[in-house]
Give the backbone structure.
Amino acid sequence: MLNNLFNRLRGGIHPPDQKQMSAEQPITLMPFADRLILPLSQHIGTPAHPVVKVGDKVLGGQLLAEPDGHFSLPVHAPTSGVVIAFEDHRVPHPSNLTAPCLILAVDGDHLTLEQEGFDNFEQVSKQELLNKIRGCGIAGMGGAGFPTDAKLKPRSNKAIETLIINGMECEPYITADDRLMREHADDVVTGARILAYLLDYPKRCVIAVEDNKPEAVAMLRLAAAGSQVEVAEFPTKYPSGSEKQLIQLVTGKKLPTGKLPSDIGVMVQNITTTVGVYRAIIQGKPMGARVTTVTGKAIARPGNYKVLMGTPVAHLLKETGYDESKSSRLILGGPMMGFTITDAQVPIIKTSNCVLAPSLEEFPDPPVPQACIRCGKCAQVCPMQLLPQQLYWYARSRDQEKLQRYHLFDCIECGSCAYACTSNIPLVHYFRAAKGDIRTRQQQQQAAASAKLRHEKRVARKEALQAERDAKRKPRPKPDQAMDKNTEPGKIIASTTETIES
Amino acid sequence: MTLINISSPHVASDGDAGSMMRLVLLATLPGLLMLTYWFGWGSLINIIWAVLLALVFETLSLLLRGRPVGFYLKDYSAVLTGVLLGLALPPLAPWWVTLVGVGFAIIIAKHFFGGLGHNPFNPAMVGYVVLLISFPVEMTSWVAPRDLVDGQPALLSFSESFFQIFPVLTQPLVDGYTMATALDLFKQHQGDLIHQSVGVRAAFGYFGAAGWEWVNLGYLVGGLFLLYRRVFTWHAPLGMLGALLLLSLIFHGLLNIDSIGSPLFHWFSGATMLGAFFIITDPVTSATSLKGRLLYGIAIGSLIFVIRSWGNYPDAVAFSVLLMNFAAPFLDYYTQPRSFGQAAIYARKEKD
């Protein structure tokens, strides 16, 4: 406890958490949709290669696409059905991008393949377990969807000393992890133990939970009794579930910019990922479904639903009594960091922890921004101790050098500054745009640099060629010899055109 | 319904610039109440007149600049400027003094620089200093606080005060009710020993200055309310009051220079509390980093003490604030906090 006092989170906010709308609803199975849309790359890395054809009947758990490369993961059928198409479809993305997807017509029988797990994982080699995790397509369910097996393979020489299972769920509204911890505490703890085994038993293995989830903490403590896994409560404050902030809360270490947690001997895994690892190893089951919170005042029956991967958001809305006339927007994720979607046909993917359909009273249209009065609240709440107000001025004046000097790229886009802003300025929006501009410019500079290099090489090549030719041409033919039949007119013409070209 | 694209975060805290300004306005009430009780209706009339003028000048400026008038009037910043200047003016200042001050504050100090959020100097203080330099007689004619000496005429009634400020039908009344404030006396009697000046003169009241000590208490109450509502942080007020306390303790207490004035005298006379909680906490013109704000407050407190003790003007809040407004960006530049995951600045320098 004393430790917590010193490691408290600097900055941060206390938005109304609104979790009561769905927190008491047990996880229930969402009825299957007719059609599942399975993106072939629902994680970073290259898209997976399909191993089935249109018209194939597939069973639940059957491999549909094989990974292509280290950061690619396989795709499995969430349930039985028929592959009806491969096509580009809108996927959950802030920019409404489309991506190649496999469309599966669900037959409703839910026939699944027999799956084999490992009863006693500690007797199995780590590589075999990692292969199983990879084979089951487990990815980080918290944010970026990074393949879990790749994350578990140590890249730096430093051993992992602290394993943190992130059950903070600090975003308002979302209760998916809360329910998972309450109802599957044993699975979470076993998953944590598997991860600990894979990481050569770190000194500490901590399940971190915010203190607004006392039931989850109680269940986890019960499940963790007698094991090495410790359950720690932290004060509720947004964004204490952010990776860097959580590492500081648990270990007191501040992750230096540009370093990975593994560089300082820490690894953070999400609750849903941990349960995914448990299911992959103990039950042999691939990631076919996940718990998603469907909530908001435009939803008649908010709750936590076990949803098949690829289920269109529209299907969830229909099943939970979504009132279109009340709704102000549709958000994937929470109110602080989630993004709006403009097409309800996008599918649920591994990272979709929440579908939020707020009413207009709940989330009215954003007010017109007023002038910045330099009140400094943004800097006081910034968990990264940045100066959002200075960044805002520089973003407006497109001063990219200053933006980088004020550490724009340390911004985690948690939204605390924009939440606290007295003048309702959409600060995060400015920062995202500025980051995009800087990245674009860097890409352009790189492209320009490589074009320059290419050009210089071409010039050098041509000069060399010319020099070679000149060398060959020396003893120049005398004028009378030039008319000789032995000379090749074509070659002379070619070299002339070459000269003209250059 | 058409689904719309809105950037996160999707929620925001309650309140906006307008609600913040309204809170500040509310917090001036105890001070205004005390001013009215001790010095008559003049301040209230001044404030109403100043707010009216502020709204007119704000509207005019916005129209000239081609900005939406209703939207900007709703931020209440012009009203606040009017109120703060009105509070600072002598209670029976003629109407044209207020007109010039408010006009200067709103048009030149605020809109010439780009309106709310862009003005480097506190508009109310700019207005005040312009008046103090241009019309020293009008600006130093303070009404004597009530019941100060035996046989003193009662404070003017509301209508008398009104016609004193707006001499429409009558000539202005003879200026028989004004007197030097405690700070003026203090300035004029600097060679005197303490028992000659402070102790015997009724103008110095119970612990600060007659009337003024209550007005300052009123501002202190309002300021603590704003602090409690987190309208601003404690850094600047504490810095300023702390510096005043420390310096007066050293010179008055430790070095025993009586004519410098006691800490209580410095805290509870003149515009000290108004400055500490309503002027230097203006976010636009102060430093923004917390460390910067502390330094900003300390510098202002020290300047006030220096000018009051050794300068030519009796009160010094306005001058000190304007001087430090200059320095605010500089303070911010050198008090940047160390951001998460970055090496300390000295470590970075060593690496370079």
Summary: Chain B has two domains: 16-179, 181-334. The first strand of chain B starts at residue 142 and ends at 143. Confidence is low (pLDDT under 50) at residues 193-200 of chain B.
